[in-house]
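Hi all, posting the design record for the shared folder.

TITLE: backbone redesign
STEP: 1 of 1
STRUCTURE INPUT:
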């Protein structure tokens, strides 16, 4: 059987590369993202998030600049094994394509000029929030369901104009409603189905249908509290969320967004990228055909994001 390439819409490796000196070449303890793991697991496309910590002493915009610099340093360290995604990229040629993203709209400091600067530095997607309210929008984790601010709407419109993907992961329900009203294909880099496991960060059914109906893609994460209510989770739980989203929105609108290196606990049978084939097996056991698995594992996310590169 021909190996299936895998695309992953979210990891937090850059934060630990910067703060804990993790290497993309030689994984250390607790590290889930590394080039040897990518090669073992069949990763062909990896998104790298520059997450900004609003509680840090350094301004969010400077944190984002530091992690952007770390991203390019990582590419240099890989000596050509990791490359920015291009329209001509083809899996199976010995390289892994990469996409740089921003997690947390605080990174642009309320500035459309800085948003455009990050675009010119290679950022191709951004979430408006993380888990805190900011000057752009309110997050899913807050009890008050507020949407986008006037500035947030201007930022979202400017992202559409310049060609930066709007990632609605972490955004409130009201914020997702307003983002959908903009009429551009959205995606969510690491969000699951609320009906399968109740969690504020997961999507309700109408948002799954609307994102899919608008030509977007929903990338399922591996974070155990979003997978199942019981203590231990597995790739079978990830497959359940994928199957539910595929049934509601179509198999061409669901993909993977692991959240590797962004959590301390993992499903029992997938601790790092080398074990991603376990998820492909779970999808087969869930009844997906091989062509459907190829779409979920790689094609859907690739086909969505390539329009922004």
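Okay, here is what came back for every position:
SEQUENCE:
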């Amino acid at each position: 059987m021909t190996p299936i390439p895998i695309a992953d819409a979210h990891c937090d490796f850059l934060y630990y590369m910067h703060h804990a000196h993790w290497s993309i070449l030689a994984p250390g303890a607790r590290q889930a993202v590394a080039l040897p793991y990518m090669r073992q697991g069949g990763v062909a496309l990896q998104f790298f998030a520059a997450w900004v910590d609003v509680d840090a002493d350094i301004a969010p915009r400077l944190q984002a600049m530091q992690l952007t610099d770390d991203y390019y340093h990582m590419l240099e360290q890989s000596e050509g094994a990791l490359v920015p995604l291009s329209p001509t990229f083809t899996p199976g040629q010995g390289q892994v394509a990469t996409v740089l993203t921003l997690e947390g709209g605080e990174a642009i400091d309320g500035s459309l000029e800085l948003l455009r600067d990050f675009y010119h530095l290679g950022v191709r997607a951004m979430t408006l929030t993380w888990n805190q309210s900011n000057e752009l929008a309110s997050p899913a984790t807050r009890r008050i369901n507020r949407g986008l601010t006037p500035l947030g709407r201007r930022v979202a419109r400017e992202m559409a104009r310049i060609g930066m993907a709007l990632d609605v992961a972490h955004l409130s329900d009201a914020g997702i409603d307003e983002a959908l009203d903009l009429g551009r294909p959205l995606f969510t880099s690491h969000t699951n189905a609320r009906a399968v496991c109740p969690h504020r960060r997961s999507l309700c059914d109408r948002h799954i249908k609307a994102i899919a109906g608008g030509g977007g893609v929903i990338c399922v994460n591996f974070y155990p509290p979003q997978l199942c209510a019981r203590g231990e989770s597995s790739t079978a739980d990830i497959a359940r969320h994928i199957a539910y989203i595929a049934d509601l929105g179509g198999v061409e609108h669901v993909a993977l967004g692991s959240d590797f290196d962004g959590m301390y606990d993992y499903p029992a049978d997938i601790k790092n990228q080398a074990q991603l084939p376990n998820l492909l097996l779970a999808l087969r056991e869930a009844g997906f055909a091989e062509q459907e698995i190829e779409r979920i594992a790689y094609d859907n996310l690739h086909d969505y994001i390539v329009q922004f590169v």
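COMMENT: The first helix runs from residue 13 to 19.
Let me know if anyone wants the other runs.
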